[in-house]
Design a protein that fits this description.
There is one protein chain. This protein has about 180 residues and is mostly helical. Helices cover about 80% and strands about 0% of the residues. It has 7 helices and no strands.
């Protein structure tokens, strides 16, 4: 079941890694939904939560403007797959002998693909939404990331299904807007 959770977390990290880290910090320290292995108990520290929330506030505002959003997009090519891979590795580390490697690879790849699709969609909707494409796609990513992460912790198959559904909606939108 942890592979399913890992893929859902990887997709959510591609949408907004700061939301995922904040939710994982809350879940690790304040609930019984998921307990990290002893080597990664630091995820539940308040310092991780506060740092993720501060970075989330910066991301929410910086991503909405063209000049700062371009910087955030470039940083996202490295940051989002790194977070998706790290969190994916943390989730599956107990399941198999090479769980950390598999988790890092699959979680990072899922986050990278999601980030690439997110940027492609935003580029296509920007002129159609009178220049508010960054705001719309940013809100979609922020809320979608939180919803997928929380549902994935409560019931991983449903979380992954919602993540795949969100990606399919984005892919259909990309196909539709790409033709016209």
């Amino acid at each position: 079941m942890s592979f399913v959770l890992m893929l859902g977390i990887g997709v959510a990290s591609g949408l907004n890694p700061y939301v995922v880290v904040a939710i994982m910090a809350i879940v690790a320290s304040r609930s019984d939904l998921w307990t990290p292995v002893p080597e990664f108990e630091f995820i539940g520290l308040n310092l991780v939560l506060v740092t993720a929330l501060l970075l989330l506030m910066i991301d929410v505002f910086a991503d909405k403007f063209h000049w700062s959003g371009q910087w955030m997009d470039r940083a996202g090519w490295l940051l989002r797959p790194a977070v998706g891979g790290l969190l994916g590795g943390v989730i599956v580390v107990e399941d198999v002998a090479h769980g950390m490697v598999v988790g890092v690879a699959l979680g990072g790849f899922a986050a990278l693909l999601t980030h690439a699709l997110r940027l492609r969609i935003r580029r296509r909707v920007q002129p159609r939404l009178l220049g508010f494409g960054r705001v719309v796609v940013g809100a979609y990513g922020n809320f979608g990331s939180g919803i997928v992460t929380m549902i994935a912790f409560m019931y991983p198959p449903l979380g992954l299904a919602i993540a795949i559904g969100a990606l399919l909606v984005a892919a259909v939108a990309d196909y539709r807007w790409g033709r016209s």
